[in-house]
Amino acid sequence: MSHDDFPTDDPAVVTCGLPYANGDLHIGHLRTYVGGDVYRRALERLGQETAFVSGSDMHGTPVAVNAEQEGVSPEQFALDWHEQYAATFPKFNVEFDNYGHTHDETNTAVTQQLVRDLDEGGHLYEKEIMVAYDPVDDQFLPDRYVEGTCPYCGAHARGDECDEGCQRHLEPGEVEDPESTITGNPAEYRERTHQFFEVSAFSEYLSGFLDRLEGTSNARNQPREWIEQGLQDWCITRDMDWGIDYPGENPQDLVLYVWVDAPIEYISSTKQYTERVGADAFDWEAAWKEGASDAHPEGGEIVHVIGRDIIQHHTIFWPAMLEATDHTEPRAVMASGFVTLGGKGFSTSRDRAVWADEYLDEGFHPDPLRYYLATNGGFQQDVDFSWEKFRDRVNTELVGTVGNFLYRSLLFAHRNYDDAPIADATSDEVAERIEEAIADFEAAVNDYSVRAVGDAVTDLARFGNEYIQRSEPWKLVDDDPEEAAQVIHDCVAIAKAIAVLFEPIAPEKTERLWDQLGEDGSVHETTVEAAREGPAGDLAEPTELFEQIEDERVEALNEKLEARAAEAEDGDEADEESGDDGEADDGSDEADDDTTDEPDMTDIEPLSDDRISFDDFQELDIRIGRIEEAEGIEGADDLLKLRVDLGAETRTIVAGLKQLHDVDDLPGTKVVVLANMEKAELFGVESNGMVLAAGEEADLLTTYEDAGPGTKVK
Length: 714
What we know:
Methionine--tRNA ligase, Methionyl-trna Synthetase, domain 2, zinc, EC 6.1.1.10, tRNA-binding, Rossmann fold
């Protein structure tokens, strides 16, 4: 592994956290997998040798519990979900080089060998511990079979994790006041012999590892607290039948804890990929084993793309296992934020979710959702999905900016010229702007920012719209045909660069664009060098790549979602009246209290666990502004064009206030403005800043006393 900028000479492996084979996928789940797919495609555009792998997480108590409820074996239950996931991901153009699962022969063998290596290296030991036991049902209760109180924060907790409180991993025997989730009986603790991995011996190594780790800041910062508090050794076995057997002497028939074999699937899946394509195409050992290859003595570039709820496993347990067994440590961990729905959490039990298959069944193309999930905020930030926000991003950015430039440029070129190249070479101005977009793209990859990958393209398309508008080739065709040809050649060159650079975000749409450009080969096999080459193919008659989403469509989708959620909630009430608790719920979706105007606490988004440094805060240029003018924007139901005095200058800012404030009352209002927000074009108006407001009603932030325009918020 190197820490050189990508592309490097070492093979890269990009992995996504394993989906748990226990239920349907919704668009919240897709954020990580889309992000991983975007990132590996972006690496490939840079010319980086890359394998993209994952698999289904088949083991653990939730699978066993739900399989028992359905009257099938855990293996069959998990395999059914695995096959559904394997079929669903390609529908969203998430294309793994290998997608396995943790129960297959390869992962079983690799897992047991790695555990034997840990044992032979002196990193495992036996220990007598207290394990929850149901005396009525006469069985031990590992992990999700037991619930109780977290000993650290006092919140309700599962047997292996304080999921509702401090998010800490919990060892067997730590949960207080244990109860069986199977029978509801009070549990008691009984002594059992289990195997432990000596994680505490790797504290110094892990501190150094976090100093080296790249990716998102939450993946580096969150684990430091656990190291500072003192690492606890890790129980790696469980009292249950479903899982991979502990290798070697095993008189109590223990299986390995699911978080042992789950990350090892990354190695196993890469190995399966090599077995399918050959080591000459991709050498899994060169990537995963230090010293396995003379050409790659330090191994490859390992990048994990995960949800932030499993940071601890990927930055403490997993790298310690890799270090103990001479495997390559991860170069980067990209930990995503969560996806909420209309400001609230997804509720699968109450059917308050946009399901993956539902999105496709509604007739939407996968690439606009990929764009929304990849570019709506930084990767580690939470993203809120609503059909309104989705419509606005699609209509303004994909249709209004990217699609508008591509269609008008290629249509004009096709109607006025026989083929490309139309001129001998791309103009200096446009060639420099394409080069700038490539540099932004490369920087985005090395900053682990999938959002910036998309921004590099939309910014280039925005430039293209401005360039064709000011050049007016339709006027030059008769008066200066040579200049007209140069302008259109430049526009087609920009379109080709967009096809290459936008491929990671919108692979299917850019494949269609590539065909319209008449270029040879596949856009999926190009590198950024193709973006520099200029157009060469015979142009086909273009069609518009992205479709406008109408307001009526959004209203119908919202009505459908609300009706479904209400039906599910009615079902919950009926279950309660009949004494049937129905599906277990985590309590996060309680009904609103209609007797008070105060917001129910379940409507308040939880405070983020992600912290920023004081230096990061200092980079935010937040100023007091005064609205001087406010007017609606034609064609935009919610948007206003504001002229805001910021002291040193007056700026145009677009804000979604039209339906929530009296437009005539806004001039003279003091507001708080994020002044160094990236510029954005919305319905043809360039917005240069962001007005800050609170909640769904857009309660404008203002000042208590007399701070004037331009005053900096500290």
